[in-house]
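cron nightly-structures :: item 1 of 1
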Amino acid sequence: MKAAVIHRYGRNDQVHIEEVAKPEPLANDLLVSVQAASVNPVDFKIRDGQLRQIVPYRLPLVLGNDLSGVVVSVGASVSRFKVGDEVFARLDKDRIGAYAEFALVSETAAARKPTRLSHVEAASIPLVGLTAWQALVDIAKLSAGQSVLIHAGSGGVGTFAIQLAKHLGATVATTVGARNSTLVKGLGADQVIDYKSQRFDELVKGVDAVFDTQGGEILERSFRVVKHGGTVVTVGGVPDARFAKAWGLNPFLVLALRFLTRRITRAAKKRGAKFEYLFMHADGAELGEIAKLLDAGVIRPVIDRTFHLASIRDALAYAETGRAVGKVVVTIP
């Protein structure tokens, strides 16, 4: 089968389309004929080797973290899916490989594809949908009548998070470039802040939660706008020491991360805020709940461009510019 493979960490010139062996499903696996897969920032980080301390992949490695496709074979212990089912999934973090004609998906990571969505639309959802769900529902426990600031509202995670927050009944503020103001208002944003000409920490005060995708200074300033006892969740920047400990990382790395994130830790403590670094995980049950919202039309996919698998380098390069509005999707004929 054809797949996008790296043999060593590096930039896009290390990504090659090659013929590799089709994987064989284990007892709890689905073998899926991949119809489409999406591009996410985590793909660049894996390609570059930025995550090798957290998830030590074995090279050569097929890239790609989420997909939509058709089940062509199932393991002996699979009970929830059968051959011919259309599914979508965020693959388990230690066994990726969505940029390929076939991929293995754990039964617990898969959900049935929303019937109203095409494979391209469905493939755009799993990673960003689960990221937003785990940040806003599982961690922040956002509910009706509360307020949230969502950074980078026109990105893949942001476009989904705005819609999810509105569904939960929250008032939503978001930061975007001026050209995407109409888009995020259409998704439900109540307050739109132009990050190029306005400072969000001068316009937003006392929100119940902040969902950050940027890290660095943006994350640090976010503690100025959250109310005492509120929640700040980030998927950007550097993991904190607590995250590193929970993942059983090297003690020296834990110490290094504690030093690197000391300003963030102090800001959270000073504000009396709950702070959590989120490295989202595959969850078929949560993805099933997301599928219901998609089928009901509560949330809609936002897709910028599609590329063929043969143009995977172009897809990665375009997504990496940060200019994409919504998601970039790779089709796999």
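cron nightly-structures :: done
Residues 128-277 form a domain with the Rossmann fold fold (CATH 3.40.50.720).
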